[in-house]
Amino acid sequence: FTFAATVEMIVLAGAKPVYVDIERDTCLMDASKLEARITPRTKAIMPVSLYGQTADMQAINAIAARHGNIPVIEDAAQSFGATYQGRKSCNLSTIGCTSFFPSKPLGCYGDGGAIFTNDDALAKALREIRVHGQERRYFHTRIGVGGRMDTIQCAVILGKLERFGWEVERRLALGEQYKRKLQAAGAQVGLLAVRPDRDCVWAQYTVFVENREAVQQSLAAVGVPTAVHYPLSLNRQPAYAHLCCPDCVPNSDWAAQRVMSLPMSADLSEEQMGRVITAIREMPL
Fold it and tell me: What ranges make up the beta strands (E) of 78-217?
């Protein structure tokens, strides 16, 4: 249950994706279902940190260690700045990958991202791969890609780093405000669970609703925009459906039919959130 980029790179690398279902209340990888999906051919485990919250990385890392120290790659595209058991997302596994797409907690004005690792050999390989496999200019030690961020996007990120701590604090606070106000309003929406050993930086403030299309139309009619991340889980996507049994991840299918994201930004005002809450309270369900 994630954006296609997660599985896209697995397939482009010539590997076969093996799906693990999610927890219904968090939309994160269900670590209790991971071990049954591991085989002697498993090369890596890729948990997705979705909506701003990390998966249960301690449990996932422990399973990986029991099976010969399988590398764990955190897809942290939506969770940069989040904390798990006192440690930051992107510092929880072999490699952490994040995105600086404009809608992310730390966003540039176009495409961008970063990879984090504490392994010096991996860091060297990653730096070379991002510049066409070059160890030094015109000396190519491995197959690579053109993976550099544009200079302008780097400048934007460096500028926005100065307010990133404030951005994270605001997103944490706004997430709590949304929760309190939706509960106080008696809104008939399901709230995403945030586990007590971690926080959520709410890249998207996501809820569960029945009859989603009608709900979205009702909110749009009073000027409240919504989005769906994601309407189809990867086992249902035309490009990847042949790689697995269609019914292999029922919780992912369940979530794909119900998730809906409400307006969220560090600059979201009290008045704007109030309009969203009022619209949800008054919508026909």
Answer: 83-84, 87-88, 95-99, 113-116, 134-136, 139-140, 190-191, 205-208
